[in-house]
From TrEMBL:
Keyword Iron attached: no
Protein name, UniProt field: GntR family transcriptional regulator, transcriptional repressor for pyruvate dehydrogenase complex
MF terms (GO), sorted A to Z: DNA binding; DNA-binding transcription factor activity
Record's keyword terms, sorted: DNA-binding, Pyruvate, Transcription, Transcription regulation
Spans traversing the lipid bilayer: none
Organism in which the protein naturally occurs: Amycolatopsis sacchari
PANTHER family with a match to the protein in the record: TRANSCRIPTIONAL REGULATOR, GNTR FAMILY, UXU OPERON TRANSCRIPTIONAL REGULATOR
Amino acid sequence: MSTGDEQVWSATVDHLRALIDSGELPAGSRLPSERKLCEQLDVSRGSLRQALRVLASIGYVSIRPGSGTYVRDREGTDRELRTWFREHDQLVDRLFDLRMMVEPTLAERLAAEHTEPVLARLRSNVAEMAAAAAKGDMLRVIATDAEFHRVIAENAGNDDVAGLLRSVLSLVGEERRAALRLPGQIAKAVEEHGEILAAIEKSDGERARELTVSHLREAQSLVHRYAGESTSD
């Protein structure tokens, strides 16, 4: 899928999410037909379907074959998740602090001593994450996101560091799911991994470190932003 196609379906996701969040498309309502939506949003049917799959995977809509696409009532689920993050904000911050101490150094080190097989694994991972995002497979997006960081740790650190990072990453699946609920974050996550990979490929350790720091800080900020949002009208 081209970058242009990704921008179209990502923008379509953001547009429909805004309509749902504003209440213009209320919970339980049926979305217009694909033909009407394509005309209204000026997008292809393929881009619209990708956007709807993404919205379904993050809990915004329910696709019912033969019936249509309906807006889901997300208030209860969102409230529980946001409450958990607010109640455990110190734990979340400590996990990010730990990642911040370890991962930028690992990315910098891998840029200096990478091998072609490792680069091939990272390229495959980024491509798989992009494909999963295009299909709206959020579970696969989250899995490939974590795998990207694990591959770096396993090939730039030692077994103890890699094991520690695996444990930390196992705790942040919901954090990633929450961050990806926010507008534009799905495509951005794929883009950021691609940029980190490009820096490693160029053996630019300083750039790999900077990008990893920025990536983690952004994720931490998004979790707090998500937790602080109100689900009430």
